[in-house]
Amino acid sequence: MNDNTLYPLTYDTPTPAYLPFPRFLVALEISNDARLLYALLFDRANLSRENGYLEPDGTVRLYFTVEEAKNKLRLSRQVATRAFQELEACGLIVRKKQGLGRPAKITLNIPVAEKKGGHTNDR
After folding, report:
1. Is the CB of residue 94 less than 8 Å from the CB of residue 88?
2. pTM listed for this prediction
3. In which element (H, E) is residue 39 found?
4. What is the torsion angle, in degrees rounded to the nearest 10, for the CA atoms of residue 110, residue 73, residue 97 and residue 62?
5. Which residue range(s) make up the domain with 106?
6. InterPro entries, per this entry (predicted)?
7. What is the arithmetic mean of pLDDT over 27-49?
8. Residue 49 located in a structural domain
């Protein structure tokens, strides 16, 4: 933060831009880097959905490279790659390589309980 002026959160304080962070991520045994990467991917997927970027079957697919993750999360390439691998290993994302230096298509998955109920009340 360049500006060191901080204000308390009040009723009328403007909300800064934020990432949606699905609660189910907290309980998963994955690294915080993988959790944050999923939040970035989830945010990008919601933007793609709002803009109508859907596959013919209705699935939202997005493009997010290791290089983008590295830069946005301020991680090394190795750590960003490991975060992608963790998300793939637990089934939260599916990456489909396109070859010829083109970015992989990513499908974001959400656990069934989250999809049905929208959210849980485990605050």
Report:
1. yes
2. 0.83
3. helix 32-50
4. 50
5. 29-117
6. RepA_N
7. 95
8. yes
Contacts of 109 (CB under 8 A, 6+ apart): 91, 92, 93, 94
How large is the average pLDDT for residues 21-38? 96
User: Do the beta carbons of residue 75 and residue 36 sit within 8 Å?
Assistant: no
In this structure, what are the phi and psi dihedrals at residue 20, rounded to the nearest 5 degrees? -70, 135
- The CATH number of residue 110's host domain is 1.10.10.10
62 vs 45: CA distance, rounded Å = 6
What are the tens digits of pLDDT across the range 47-95? 989 988 888 999 998 999 999 999 999 999 999 999 999 999 999 999 9
- Structural domain includes residue 123: no
Report DSSP letters for 75-118, one per residue.
--HHHHHHHHHHHHHTTSEEEE---TTPPPEEEE---HHHHHHS
Question: Tokens 């946005």 appear where?
Answer: 72
- Cβ-Cβ contacts under 8 Å for 107 (sequence gap 6 or more): 59, 60, 61, 93, 94, 96
- Tally of structural domains, the chain: 1
